[in-house]
Amino acid sequence: MSRPPAAADVVVVSNRLPVDHSDDPAEPWRRSPGGLVAALEPVMRSTEGAWVGWPGTADLEVAPFDFDGMRLVPVTLTAEEIELYYEGFSNDTIWPLYHDVISPPGYHREWWDAYVRVNRRFAEAAAAVAAEGATVWVHDYQLQLVPRMLRELRADLVIGYFHHIPFPAYGLYSQLPWRRQVLDGLLGADVIGFQRVADAGNFARAVRRQFSYETRAGAITVPTADGGRRIAIAKAYPISIDVSLYDELARRPDIQARAREIREGLGDRKILLGVDRLDYTKGIRHRLKAYGELLAEGRLNVEDVTLVQVASPSRERVGAYMQLRDEIEQAVGRINGETDTVDYSAVRYLHHSYPREEMVALYLAADVMLVTALRDGMNLVAKEYVASRVGVDGVLVLSEFAGAADELTQAIKVNPHDIDGLKDAILAAVELSPKDQTRRMRALRRRVREHDVADWSERFMLDLEYLRGQRA
Ligand code: G6P
Questions:
Q1: Could you say which EC number(s) this protein's record lists (predicted)?
Q2: Ligand 1 neighbour 99 (Cβ under 6 A)
Q3: For ligand 1, atom 16: residue with the closest CA
Q4: N or C: which terminus of the chain has fewer CB atoms within 10 Å of its end residue's CB?
Q5: Which residue among 165, 316, 381 is best mutated to probe the pocket of ligand 1, counting the most ligand atoms within 8 A of its Cβ?
Q6: CB 451 less than 6 A from any atom of ligand 1
Q7: Range with the lowest mean pLDDT among 2-6, 39-43, 418-422, 433-437?
Q8: Mean pLDDT of 310-331
Q9: pLDDT confidence of 41, banded at 50, 70, 90?
């Protein structure tokens, strides 16, 4: 296969590019707020790197271009492909299936066909831009077939895949009509990374059940096309955030002033905070139910406490997300209608996304952070809150079903399905003494500081380099 002269030594492949296209001709590309860019920037800048991804708009055909020191390679998706591959198979089959079927997954052959077609396009784009022997790092559930396709196109590449969301237990995974193809797609990678040890275990079990390959301590023996075998590593690399960035923002006087302004604006009450994409995996309804009951029972009082719920718009054309939005907005309306006074509101609901500075001001303003996901790969909001609490106080209430719970053991743990337990945990958080807040927050901050995102990408890359060495 012919390669362009500016071939890249490291190629990142993800469904979305780290920039969004806008209609403003003065600034056609804006850096998207996702954490992955921050995570991979050091890797990308230290080498001749390229990033392959979809620019976020239908039918947009753009040649590769440089942005902020990175080479970006846009992959075009038609409106139909967005519907079948992105909204359909990625976000209405894999997403709900991998999040323990909180919403029923749809299994449609048309969606699968589009997924195969689009994955092939990403694999071809990556193969075309990668230098001889380059490292290609593929990201997330939208692109599970890319590792195998890439290996077939370019046997010289070292291929990593990181799975940002949960990998489900075999009993659920086995529902997938294309379960063998997806496992085989992932096994094309040299290193297959997961958020939790449990995810890597679920994957290894699925591989054993479907293919009977030997799996031992994270090493999977995979047969090769020429009758030989190779080792793929499948293990946990919990992702993190750029901790020093949040720490710096949280110390900025203008952001601290903004935090005070937010508190005053809300009547100097205790602030509970929820920050989520508007997604059924996040447990927003459970959170509202628990909070609403605490108010109705008089265990919390609207003059003392308020809940700020940021729910950023997401996947708005997928039915389950439309329905969820209606349910949440109805719940908020009901709680506010029943509890508000003329001066005070129980829930401040914000269906927007905000720049990082404003988020840090909110984290600084919030006494209690509520992360009540029913299932979540990691949940970086929990880590952002901790990193922003430079005063070493504040309380994190954290679902045991979020990947972050494995690391953030000093949070107040909850099972969000248990509404009474959730109510008790919220109350305990509101009432936690300053001394206990500091004790817990100090431990949480230490953990987050010691495992930041640079650490995550280094660990992953080291294992890839180890396998490269084994090959030689
Ligand atoms: C999750 C996924 C990402 C995805 C993000 C936003 O974090 O793991 O792969 O990019 O949600 O979702 P969207 O569908 O807007 O890309």
A1: 2.4.1.15
A2: no
A3: 16
A4: C
A5: 165
A6: no
A7: 2-6
A8: 97
A9: confident
441 with 346, same domain: the answer is yes
pLDDT at 1: 46
* 216 and 271 together in one domain: no
Confidence bin at 145 (pLDDT 50/70/90): very high
Tell me how many domains the chain contains. 2
Mean pLDDT of 387-400: 98
More confident call, 454 vs 302: 302
2 inside domain:
no
Return the number of other C-beta atoms located less than 10 Å from residue 223's C-beta: 12
Mutating to test ligand 1, I would choose from 140, 143, 318 the residue with most ligand atoms within 8 A of its C-beta, which is 140
Confidence of residue 326 (pLDDT cuts 50, 70, 90): very high
How many whole angstroms separate alpha carbon 321 and alpha carbon 293? 25
Q: How far apart are CA 123 and CA 118, in angstroms?
A: 9
Domain with 151, as residue range(s), is 8-239+454-471
Q: How far apart are CA 460 and CA 470, in angstroms?
A: 16
**Does residue 173 sit in the same domain as residue 247?**
no
Please check whether residues 404 and 306 belong to one and the same domain: yes
Q: For the whole prediction, is pTM greater than 0.80?
A: yes
Q: Are residues 353 and 466 in the same domain?
A: no
Q: Does residue 298 fall inside a structural domain?
A: yes
CA-closest candidate to residue 156, choices 4, 9, 40, 50: 9
Instruction: Judge if 138 and 217 occupy the same domain.
Output: yes
Q: Quick one: tokens of 284?
A: 């927003």
Residue-wise pLDDT tens digits, 167-195: 999 999 999 999 999 999 999 999 999 99
How much distance in Å is there from the Cα of 214 to the middle of ligand 1? 32
pLDDT of residue 307: 98
164 lines ligand 1 (CB under 6 A): yes
Pairing of strands 229-236, 219-223: antiparallel
Longest dimension (CA), the chain: 75
User: Are both 163 and 300 inside the same structural domain?
Assistant: no
Question: How far is the centre of ligand 1, averaged over its atoms, from the C-alpha of 273 (Å)?
Answer: 21
CATH of the domain at 355: 3.40.50.2000
In ligand 1, the atom with minimum distance to the C-alpha of 377 is 8
**What is the atom index within ligand 1 of the atom nearest the CA of 141?**
9
